[in-house]
Design goal:
about 60% helix; alpha/beta; 4-stranded parallel sheet
Length: about 500
C-alpha cells in the first residue's frame, strides 16, 4: 500500500517537474521526485520519527524557510508553483520542511537559472478564442511562445486580475511580459494586477493570429520588447477591400463645372437624340467632385460607367472622355456610335446620327443651355474671343474654339443670374502670375460687361485660362498620338 502510494506520488511529481521545469528551462532530476514522494508519504504518517521531529521544530523550520525564500526568490516561486500543482493533483499540502527540501533541491541542481527574456500571454473574451490564436501562433512559430487566458464575457475585471496574477507568477524568470488583448478595456487591467514590480509589461490590442505570429517571432529572436511591439504595430495595419458582385447598371456621366442645370440640358440633348427606351443611364455628376475623388468616387461602384461627357476632362483612368466640342464638331461621332451601338439597332443608330447633327449644332446647344438670346450672345462671345486672340497673339484651335464658345456663353449666364464661380484653388497665385492675361480678358469682354451690366471675377478668368491651356495641351497629346499611330501603320 505504501509503495503504491509513493509510486503514484512520484508519477504526478514527475509531471509537475516536467511542466514547470520546461517552462523555466531548468533541470529537475527524477531522483528528487522519488525523494519528494517519500517525504510526502512520511508527512502523512504522524508517528514516523521525522514527522515527530518536525512537530517539535516546526517554528524553527518555518523561520528557516522564510529566510531562504527571501534570499532565493526565484527558486522559492518555482517551488511554490510545483507544490501548488501537487496540492491540486494529490490534495496534499506540503509541510514547510518538504517545501524547504524542494527549494534547496532546485538550487542544488540549477546554480544559475536562465533568464527567459520575454514571454507572451494572449487574453481574449469568448470560448477558446485566446487558446485557438495561441495554439495556431505557437505551431507556426515552431515553439511555445504564448500562453492563453480565455475569458467569459461576464468575467469581472477583478476576477480577470486574479487569473492574470496567477499566470504572472509563472514568469518569475522573465524580464518582460507581452500581454495581447482583444478590447481596449483590457489595456488598463494592469492597474488591478498585483506583483507587476517583478516584470516589465507590454500591452498591445486588436489581437489576431498574424499579429501574434509577428510578435512571437520577435520574442523568439530575442528582440527587445519595445522593438517587437513597435514593429508589430507598424506592420499589422488593417486594410480593406470591397468586392462588389452586384450587377451594376451601365451609364454615361455628364460632368460639368457650369452647374447642374446646364449639364442636365446637355444630357437631355443626348437623350432626345437617342430616343426613348434607351437601356442606359445618363447621369449628371459634379466635375469638381470627380476631380477630387477620382476613380474612388461612389458613382463608379454604383454604375458601370461607359464614358464621361463634358467640357473639362476629369482624367478618370480607364473611363473614356468625350469633349462637348467634339460632339458639336462631329469629331466624336464615331466614339458615340461605338458606345450607343451596344444599345440601339441599326435603324435606331441611323436616327441617332441624324439627330446628333441637328441637336448639337453650336446654335442649338447654346440655345438649349442658356436663357439669353443665343444669336446675340454667340455674336458677342465670338467678337470677344477674336479680340482675345489678337491681343494675346495666341491662335486658338477651331475645335477648342467651339468648346470655348459654350463655356463663355454659360459664363455670361452665370454672371447675369449672379451664380458665378467664386472659388478657384490657388487664386492668389494665379493673380500674381497672370496679371497681363486678366487685364487682356477684361479688355476683350468690355462690350459684354457693359451690355449685360456684369463684372468678370478673377476666378472665372482663371477658368478661361485653364480651358484654353488644358484644351491646347490635350489637343497636342491627341495629335501626338495620332502621328504615332500613322507611323506605326
Amino acid at each position: 500500500m505504501v509503495n503504491t502510494r509513493i509510486s503514484t506520488y512520484e508519477q504526478l511529481i514527475n509531471q509537475a517537474f516536467e511542466n514547470i521545469g520546461g517552462a523555466y528551462g531548468i533541470s529537475l532530476s527524477k531522483k528528487y521526485s522519488h525523494l519528494l514522494a517519500r517525504c510526502l508519504d512520511i508527512q502523512m504518517r504522524e508517528n514516523h520519527f521525522i514527522s515527530l521531529w518536525y512537530k517539535n521544530n516546526e517554528k524553527e523550520v518555518g523561520r528557516l524557510l522564510q529566510l531562504m525564500c527571501q534570499n532565493l526568490t526565484v527558486e522559492a516561486r518555482i517551488s511554490a508553483q510545483i507544490l501548488g500543482l501537487i496540492k491540486q493533483n494529490l490534495d496534499v499540502e506540503a509541510s514547510s520542511l518538504n517545501h524547504l527540501f524542494l527549494l534547496l533541491s532546485i538550487k542544488s541542481q540549477n546554480q544559475k537559472i536562465p533568464d527567459n527574456g520575454t514571454a507572451g500571454v494572449i487574453l481574449s473574451h469568448g470560448y477558446a478564442t485566446a487558446t485557438s490564436i495561441a495554439d495556431a501562433a505557437n505551431q507556426i512559430i515552431g515553439r511555445k511562445v504564448f500562453d492563453a487566458i480565455d475569458m467569459p464575457l461576464n468575467m469581472s475585471s477583478r476576477e480577470l486580475a486574479v487569473t492574470l496574477e496567477k499566470h504572472i507568477e509563472r514568469y518569475v524568470t522573465c524580464r518582460d511580459l507581452v500581454l495581447m488583448v482583444d478590447m481596449g478595456s483590457l489595456e488598463q487591467i494592469y492597474e488591478e494586477v498585483k506583483g507587476l514590480d517583478r516584470v516589465n509589461i507590454g500591452i498591445i490590442n486588436n489581437i489576431s493570429t498574424a499579429l501574434a505570429v509577428d510578435i512571437g517571432i520577435g520574442i523568439s529572436s530575442n528582440m527587445e520588447m519595445e522593438a517587437v511591439l513597435k514593429r508589430a504595430s507598424e506592420s499589422n495595419v488593417c486594410m480593406y477591400r470591397v468586392i462588389s458582385n452586384l450587377q451594376r447598371e451601365e451609364a454615361i456621366l455628364f460632368s460639368g463645372e457650369n452647374g447642374t442645370d446646364t449639364t442636365e440640358r446637355i444630357r437631355d440633348l443626348i437623350l432626345k437624340s437617342a430616343g426613348s427606351g434607351l437601356p442606359l443611364q445618363l447621369i449628371v455628376h459634379d466635375y469638381y467632385r470627380l476631380v477630387k475623388n477620382g476613380s474612388q468616387d461612389g458613382v463608379f461602384s454604383k454604375y458601370k460607367v461607359k464614358a464621361i461627357i463634358g467640357l473639362f476632362n476629369p482624367e478618370i483612368r480607364g473611363i473614356p472622355f468625350i469633349a462637348l466640342e467634339d460632339i458639336i464638331s462631329m469629331e466624336a461621332a464615331g466614339r458615340l456610335e461605338h458606345i450607343f451601338s451596344e444599345y440601339l439597332d441599326e435603324k435606331q443608330m441611323a436616327v441617332f446620327g441624324q439627330n446628333l447633327v441637328k441637336n448639337f449644332s453650336l446654335q442649338n446647344v447654346v440655345e438649349s443651355i442658356t436663357i439669353l438670346n443665343p444669336d446675340k450672345l454667340l455674336d458677342e462671345v465670338e467678337q470677344s474671343v477674336f479680340q482675345l486672340q489678337r491681343i494675346t497673339g495666341r491662335v486658338i484651335d477651331s475645335r477648342i474654339m467651339i468648346g470655348l464658345y459654350v463655356h463663355l456663353c454659360c459664363l455670361v449666364e452665370r454672371l447675369v443670374t449672379k451664380t458665378s464661380i467664386e472659388c478657384y484653388q490657388g487664386l492668389e497665385e494665379f493673380e500674381r502670375q497672370h496679371g497681363d492675361f486678366i487685364s487682356q480678358v477684361r479688355e476683350c469682354f468690355q462690350d459684354i460687361s457693359s451690355h449685360y451690366r456684369v463684372e468678370l471675377p478673377v476666378s472665372e478668368i482663371a477658368y478661361i485660362y485653364d480651358y484654353i491651356n488644358l484644351s491646347n495641351k490635350r489637343r497636342a497629346v491627341d495629335q501626338s498620338l495620332g502621328n504615332s499611330r500613322q507611323e506605326d501603320e
